[in-house]
Amino acid sequence: MPKEIFIGGGGEDYAAPQHLTLKYANRHGLVAGATGTGKTVTLQILAESFSNEGVPVFLADVKGDLSGLVKAGSAETALHDAFIKRAQKIQFTAFSYHNVPVTFWDLFGDQGHPVRTTVAEMGPLLLSQLLELSEAQEGILNIAFRLADEQGLPLLDLKDLQALLVWVGENRDSLSLRYGNVSTASIGAIQRRLLVLENQGGAKMFGEPALELSDLMRQDAAGRGMVNILAADKLMAAPKLYATFLLWLLSELFETLPEVGDPEKPKLVFFFDEAHLLFEDAPKALVDKVEQVARLIRSKGVGVYFVTQSPDDIPEDILGQLGNRIQHALRAFTARDRKKLKLAAETYRENPRFPTEDAIREVGVGEAVTSMLQKKAVPGIVERTLIRPPSSQLGPITAAERKAVLQASDMSGKYDTPVDRKSAFEMLRARADQAAKEAAEAEEIAETAPDPMVREFSAARRYNGGRVGRSTSRKLGGRADTFASAMSEAVIKELKGTTGRRIVRGILGGLFKGR
Q1: What's the whole-model pTM score?
Q2: Domains of the chain, with CATH numbers?
Q3: Distance in Å from the first CA to the final CA of the chain
Q4: In this structure, how many other beta carbons lie within 10 angstroms of the beta carbon of residue 313?
Q5: Per-residue pLDDT tens digits for 119-166
Q6: What SS3 class is residue 309?
Q7: Which of 273, 370, 423, 479 is a plausible cystine mate for 154, CB 3.0–4.6 Å?
């Protein structure tokens, strides 16, 4: 019999016990409902259940409430009696208080282990979305990435990209002949957007050591899946950064993990909270890529669960792929609300016992209408369900408790200290310094030569008597611009990075790294 996780159940007027079959958990899912209807607790019990079955989980803690997963619930809490009554009513005989193994992560490195990627791995498409670039500006960024890939210039952090954009601007005339117009105005606009990103703290996202995906897919000594919690309360102040980071992580999983078909249980479950932020103002090209990733990543053993207020927040092509659904209450006070409610009800397989639209409007806090994939991945009919109580602590842990968890973590020390290796910034600066040195040496030779004719020839005076200027930026086709000397160092340095591997841009513009 297939393994299942218990979602909730019934009693009078409610469904029989509802289970999510692990075999179909990689067919993705949706947790939706208005603010205050119980989505966060549902997310908590799903994370607990997957972890108990040995499935690692990644989720973002948007409100700071989910850190309680690391600590067992207690009979001393005010909600204990209500939890016991709920467990009895839904026949949840296995209910007990326990914690799950947790690793805390934080883009800013304050409330968890730092999590980073490189600019090269982010890729031009996602970076353009993050910076909200125009089409012309995105074109410039693509040129910069192409040059970095071709010439072996590692783009690790923001200063690497900023230095490369300066070089592109200095050589825009020769580059325009090959790639089309390279506008200084567009370069300036990108640099300003990078400055805004730095001011938001986004620079901490880029650099090394970069996150190893295997560190998100661990189990503890008892075989329970690790629950990876990304601190996102501060990150939500920069919603584009939040959405782009999670989308990058999803695309990295897609590009990196091998095909596994339909496993008996997922290799990882990925929760995308506040999912509407991913699709707000997103260009159609990006939405199409997300739809493609969502469709194909299930064969890599990854289940993606979107958490949002209304199913209407998810594009229709993606919503159609979300087979396991937990719908908390939607309010319908306005004509627009009623329209959203009607559309939400239409996405479920009807139950002849009650109108779906009425059920979605009427369920209370901690209740939901659910539809889980059944045999042969057929959607189950919609049912009214009382959601099971959580086994871990409801609400956040203290700062001292979080600090203790971080200190005891097996990730402690691995990502804490940033590494600034020699990369595009240092290579381009060394190149400019070398060009300046050569120019100074040539100037000195010209000025000190004993023969006046040699001095005139070396100084290369024009017909009007003006001296020819020497630029520190060589033309693209010149010998120095092959970066031969720089590449010899880069190849050695990058044998464990992107340069020493086959460089191919993946489905979302990041690097697909093959041997």
Answers
A1: 0.86
A2: 4-115+213-408 (3.40.50.300), 119-205+423-514 (no CATH)
A3: 40
A4: 20
A5: 999 999 999 999 999 999 999 999 999 999 988 999 999 999 999 999
A6: coil
A7: 423
